[in-house]
Specification:
Number of strands: 8
Distance between the termini: 54 Å
Order of helices and strands: HHHEEEEEEHEEHHHHHH
Length: 199
């Protein structure tokens, strides 16, 4: 049953590297499968992130809460995406971010020890995970550039075009937090764009 559920993960990995059937079997012996309910936390700020997670179904948000209690969303993750506080996971230090389920969510989870063991037994997986981390790093850098160089309208338009399926699943106030604006301002932006399309 696990192998059937893990099929999306294996297909994802095969986009980067080729595993033998023996390697696939060993990989699957090291994973944990878990379901979370909407609202449950996978990682909480200040705790050590113990798992790197592949999303089978559902949606999560990664965010931090500032000293004023304001929530700042850094990213969303849906099917075939990864989620965790990667810095905390790699260094096994307290997490800077929370990861919370926006929907009921099913995950495949790799513990820190399992990942280290997989690196030894299947060296090509170290290259695979390195590529995943590199892609996440590049994406975060590009997002920083967009935040500094684009207007709020441009940031929303980019988000809408880049992640059309995600927008339909996420409350507007969360999208506003991700974009660094208020939900009222996001509402104005959406109305402006609708008017532009009609004119």
């Amino acid at each position: 049953m696990i192998s059937i559920k893990a099929k999306p993960l294996l297909e994802y990995i095969n986009n980067y590297i080729s595993l033998t059937s023996t390697e696939e079997a060993y990989l699957l012996s090291k994973i944990t499968y878990r379901k979370y309910l909407k609202g449950q936390f996978i990682v909480q700020q200040g705790d050590i992130c113990k798992y790197e997670c592949f999303v089978l179904s559902g949606c999560t948000k990664m965010f931090f809460v500032d000293e004023q209690g304001q929530e700042h969303i850094i990213m969303f993750s849906v099917e075939d995406w990864w989620t965790s506080d990667i810095g905390s996971f790699i260094e096994q230090t307290p997490a800077d971010f929370n990861v919370q389920c926006i929907e009921n969510t099913e995950l495949i989870m790799f513990s820190y020890d399992s990942v280290e063991d997989l690196y030894i037994k299947i060296p090509k997986l170290e290259r695979f995970f390195r590529q995943i981390i590199e892609r996440a790093f590049v994406a975060s850098q590009k997002r920083l550039v967009r935040n500094f160089s684009l207007s709020a309208v441009e940031r929303y338009t980019y988000f809408k075009n880049q992640y059309p399926k995600i927008e339909q699943r996420i409350p507007q106030y969360m999208i506003a937090s991700y974009l660094g604006i208020t939900k009222e301002f996001l509402s104005k932006i959406k109305k402006q764009l609708v008017l532009r399309q009609k004119s």
